[in-house]
Amino acid sequence: MTIRDVAERTGYAIGTVSRALNNSPGVSEATRKYILEVVKEMGFQPNSNARQLKQRDRQGYSIIVKGTKNRLFAVIVEQMQNLLKQSNKPVSPYYVDEDADEVELALQVCHNQKPLGMLFLGGNARNFAERFAKLTCPSVLVTTRADTFGFSNLSSVSTDDVEGAERAMGHLLDAGHRQVGIIAGTDAFTPQGFSNTSYLRMNGCRNAFLRRGIPFQPEEQTVCARFSLQGGYEGASALLERLPHLTAILAMSDIMAIGALRAIHDRGLRVPDDISLIGYDGIEQAAYCIPRLTTIRQDAEQLARRSLDILLQQVEDGTIVHEIVPFQLVEGESVRSL
Amino acid sequence: MTIRDVAERTGYAIGTVSRALNNSPGVSEATRKYILEVVKEMGFQPNSNARQLKQRDRQGYSIIVKGTKNRLFAVIVEQMQNLLKQSNKPVSPYYVDEDADEVELALQVCHNQKPLGMLFLGGNARNFAERFAKLTCPSVLVTTRADTFGFSNLSSVSTDDVEGAERAMGHLLDAGHRQVGIIAGTDAFTPQGFSNTSYLRMNGCRNAFLRRGIPFQPEEQTVCARFSLQGGYEGASALLERLPHLTAILAMSDIMAIGALRAIHDRGLRVPDDISLIGYDGIEQAAYCIPRLTTIRQDAEQLARRSLDILLQQVEDGTIVHEIVPFQLVEGESVRSL
DNA sequence: CTGAAAGCGCTTACAG
DNA sequence: CTGAAAGCGCTTACAG
Fold first, then answer.
1. Which residue of B has its CA nearest to A288?
2. Could A262 and B290 be called an inter-chain contact, meaning their C-beta atoms sit closer than 8 Å?
3. CA distance B219 to B15
4. Which CATH class is domain B161-298?
5. How far is CA A218 from the centre of its chain?
6. Nearest by CB to A69, which of B50, B53, B74?
7. Is the CB of B273 under 7 A from strand D?
8. Nearest nucleotide to A14 by CA–C1' distance?
9. Do residues B292 and B332 touch, judged by C-beta distance below 8 A?
């Protein structure tokens, strides 16, 4: 069934049907109403390929989500969809594997969907450096800073990873912990080393030590792991093995912290009695752990709202902004004062 | 940049470029190689709208996923994508809100993408009853039985929810529990009552009681809640409030069980010492809980593999199958014998 | 093996 | 307000 069938059925030309369908001007109210009725009755659905192919001015917004497992991203997507529901611009999320190339996908989406703007949830610096230049669409990178990337059509909204980690580590140090292990995150590009984000958070950890005049031996105190339950489990196991006097662990994501929780338990130790534990992100799950996880909460609602505000502005007048959204230390039950 | 630019640049006609791009027969190897080189150099990407619009024979497969939060579904999607990687048919997942109409989305996707076949991860009986008849594409409903739906182009692959729940409840009863609470799941269509799946699982619970000659009072022993952490938390709280002599809880998903775990803890009780707890699904998270969750594990790998096998067969010759995949009771640490 | 041309289902100037 | 027609960027019979 095509628009042609609707035209025949109603007796109008396909152009008129199209205009009625798209709320375009140039159709009488009566005609529009009648056509829409017939469309509904026939159950006609316009072919979106033909529509996209033709449509001159760009439509809604696209969200590129890096990794389906990331709960923080999932929540941000939800918030964005809610916020965009009012304005009736369509918004479509595209999910790309955590290890895949988000910029590559963005180029395709931009080419095919011609969105007004794109939102990236998560992004790898290397991918952006290599390919983002080809992308002409107004874009906002969310949860990762892009100010040093130097693109004129890329804003960013993020929390300050250095400060966040400094705050988390400071919380442990101020509670009297000195033997602290760190579970940092790797990604597909740095399978042995720190992901971008982890690198920044490592700097934050270092600052926390230095500013308190406490010695810090990153090589000894840190392990790298995937951002996953298993990664956290293995990371914590390795730390506990290596550092028998450990009293606290900082995991660079709540998911890793939850894995760590179990690893600690499996070695016959308890959180927080024997080992204090702090996570990062503030996902819902963290509040359901036993003990409730102390964590750095990234404000999903605000990240979503500010990203959209900035994107809409950027679409309008091209201004780019690199905004930092405040984080929050959520005190759970997983850190003990010594 | 269009295929026309590539044609000009190479000196060939656009038809030839198209054939080279699509590995169609009728291009000499040398020409194909040359064209592909130029394509790469120019960074040309074909417009998928135009391609979809034209393409006669249908392309890959589409997966309709009901709910981004469902970990079981997420794992099944991953498995399917891995399995389809070999055959180089593209496979695209489409995510629809847990409360939205998956069949509506399927109709759109079918209309626009013209997939060879569709896979539904989760599905609501009412939506299928109301609209699935319009969908002509070979389809498989995964994790929910469709044999009673009576569609000639809809197979299904699922675990036996009645038996699964009977096994779970039997496990509690055989461990000596008599005062057992049940947290059943609601959905958008039955906000007060049981979701389809929960209804079947309730029957399983009933069977477990009846076959052992133990009295069962479903109204008293059951609460309904959303399939979420919070739902589980509230459900368990309500049960503990209502039934002071409770010794065990069966939650109809692991996520709800994890919420319940915390609710039990917050009332000063312990799992499994005071309350035994059993979940459903067997998501990764269940194995990281403290205590490790006893649960009914649905075999994601086999659900994915059988669904694809059946779909491919169905695409070929139209045979539909309603297959039951075995489940497994995974014993964790959350059930205690009385 | 290659080219020229029709056409997929729409949207949108352009006339009237 | 409405219609007739061009054209979006491809694919695919049809000729050669």
1. B262
2. yes
3. 68
4. alpha beta
5. 27
6. B74
7. no
8. D3
9. yes
Structural fold of domain A61-159+300-328: Rossmann fold (3.40.50)
Task: Give Cα B108 to chain centroid, integer Å.
Answer: 20
Instruction: For residue range A165-188, list pLDDT tens digits in order.
Output: 999 999 999 999 999 999 999 988
Which residues does chain A have within 8 Å of residue B69's beta carbon, measured at their own beta carbons? 74
Q: Per DSSP, which regions of chain B are E strands?
A: 61-66, 91-96, 117-121, 139-142, 154-158, 180-185, 222-225, 248-251, 276-281, 294-298, 322-324, 327-330
Nucleotide nearest B7, from its CA to each C1':
C3
The beta strands (E) that lie in A159-241 are given as 180-185, 222-225
A3-46 and A61-159+300-328: same fold? Answer: no
Residue-range domain boundaries for chain B: 3-46, 61-159+300-327, 161-298
Q: Which residues of A are less than 8 Å from B95 in CB distance?
A: 93, 95
At the topology level, CATH places domain A3-46 in 434 Repressor (Amino-terminal Domain) (1.10.260)
Domain at A161-297, CATH class: alpha beta
Count CB atoms within 10 A of the CB of residue A77. 23
Identify all chain A residues contacting B233, using CB atoms and an 8 Å cutoff.
Answer: 288
pLDDT-derived band at A26, boundaries 50, 70, 90: confident
Residue to test with chain A: of B69, B72, B77, B112, most A Cβ within 10 A: B112
pLDDT digits (tens, 9 = 90+) for A89-131: 778 888 888 888 999 999 988 888 888 899 999 999 999 999 9
Is domain B61-159+300-327 classified as CATH 3.30.390.10?
no
B261–A290 CB contact, under 8 Å: yes
Give chain B's residues under pLDDT 70. 56-58, 88
